[in-house]
Amino acid sequence: MFVWSYWKTIFTRPASPSNEFCLSKADKEQYEKEERPESQQEILRRAAKDLPIYTTTASRAIRYCDRCQLIKPDRCHHCSACDICVLKMDHHCPWVNNCVGFSNYKFFLLFLMYSLLYCLFVAATVLQYFIKFWTNELPDTHAKFHVLFLFFVAAMFFISILSLFSYHCWLVGKNRSTIETFRAPTFRNGPDKNGFSLGCSKNLREVFGDEKKYWLVPIFTSLGDGCNFPTRLVMMDPEQLTVSSQNEPAKSSGANQSFPPRPLSESQNRLLASDSQWVESGPEEESVKSGFCNTFCA
To answer: 93-142 pLDDT, tens per residue?
Structure first.
């Protein structure tokens, strides 16, 4: 399972946005001709009006990738190492020489878990010989240095991987990526680190799928298409409201300006069918050590 997970993490191609997020030929030519940022943003807003996009840049602009020439879906970022836009990008990991994102995030988590178990198994089996080494009960051969080296390597990797695995388990529980932890996504009403969090149980299902029997198997079972994600309704974003009946009036925002609710995709309805609003309980942890990710996954 360790080798299988590692293989899937390495060789699973990062998922990229579909063609619907690319500008049409006419819009692309007009965008390239325009020199004023305001005019370019108007073109992007017109092209993105029917797309399932709810996040913007910090300056309230449409997130557009000049390199890939497409409008970025929510949680999508451009990887400079892979030179592509990656759906729900978490980070580019040099240990697997690949981007960790929507298509292989489950495999990456399983790889960490099985690596952790493997290091624990090695350290546990060598422990008795390690104890004999320190009590001088081990025969005086060159093998005793191999035992010492093997135990320390297994123990050090176990501690390192445990820290990284615990961190990513925390991210899954909060439904955040590493990027979103350090730079919160901006919604209509401002930045919100927990904007995509639906509660711990729903967050786990979004990554591992509905069927628990496949959770520990490195096959793709994540929910959704990577371009469209359900959001937590803590800020009452009028474009994100889920209605329980056809007759519920649209919510209003600002000075008597009403916004009709936008219908949710099939992938969203699977997670939000039983509830109309999500609120997480307990205090939120708003700070993470800034050097953590760079230490293990830079």
So the answer is: 998 999 999 999 999 999 999 999 999 999 998 888 777 777 777 676 66
**What is the tens place of the pLDDT at every residue in 141-158?**
666 777 788 888 999 999
Looking at residue 126, what is its pLDDT? Answer: 87
DSSP string across the chain: -HHHHHHHHHHSPPP---GGGBPPHHHHHHHHH--SHHHHHHHHHHHHTTS----B-TTS---EETTTTEEPPTT-EEETTTTEEETT--EEETTTTEEESTTTHHHHHHHHHHHHHHHHHHHHHHHHHHHHHHTT-S-SSTHHHHHHHHHHHHHHHHHHHHHHHHHHHHHHHHT--HHHHHSPPEETTEE-TTTT---HHHHHHHHH-S-GGGTTSSS----S-SS------TT--GGGPPPSSTTPPPEEETTTEEEPPPPPPHHHHHHHTT-S-----S-------TTHHHHHH-
Q: Pairing mode, if any, of strands 98-100 and 91-93?
A: antiparallel
Active site residues: 93
Are 78 and 92 a contacting pair, CB within 8 Å?
no
